[in-house]
Amino acid sequence: MTPGEIGCFLSHQACWQRIVDGDEQFGAVFEDDVIFSEHLATFLNDANWVPADADLVKLETVKAAVWLGASKALSDGYEITRMHSLHCGSGAYIISQSAARQFLVATRRFVDGVDHALFNPACGACVGVRTYQVFPALCIQAQVLYRNAHALRGDLALTAHSEPRYRDSLAHLPWLKRKARSAARRIAHIARGHRRIVVPFVK
What we know:
Blueprint: H1 3-21, E1 26-30, E2 34-36, H2 40-44, E3 56-58, E4 65-73, E5 79-83, E6 92-96, H3 97-106, H4 114-119, E7 131-135, E8 139-141, H5 142-145, H6 156-159, H7 175-191, E9 195-198
Parallel strand pairs: 3-7
Antiparallel strand pairs: 1-6, 2-8, 3-6, 4-5, 4-9, 5-7
């Protein structure tokens, strides 16, 4: 892993520890380059809208297509929906106290970025974790919203990423097996009524 990835991961672990040591059922974690929607404050006033079975609620988008399940209406035209596939980015999320404790144990040793540990089922750390997505997203990282204008993008030490090493990555399979496995997963999602969509950001 790159030094930047290690430092980022340790920062998230420190946040999880504070949540575990606190008295609240949920805690919100934000990275330092996140842009907030003007509606975010409404959702941070209380956690009554968070599903009772939620371990993670992703608040951001990286503008990539993801598989989402059935949705429930929230205020101001927002929805919350189960997330059923990888959605990269660890810039903004809500995590339950129990999930924070689980991730601290599961990532005592880590070899991939924190966003893969949190949101990539192939990574292994989030197996059994129930993850939801706020739709549209309430947050977005500056480097996603402004692809060529982010102040950090010129610093390779901060923007470099290592190659993923999680064992169940499709990238590790031969081409034909990779295509067949990908097609099988797509069919399974469609059969379950999931929708593949790019999560937008509304400022």
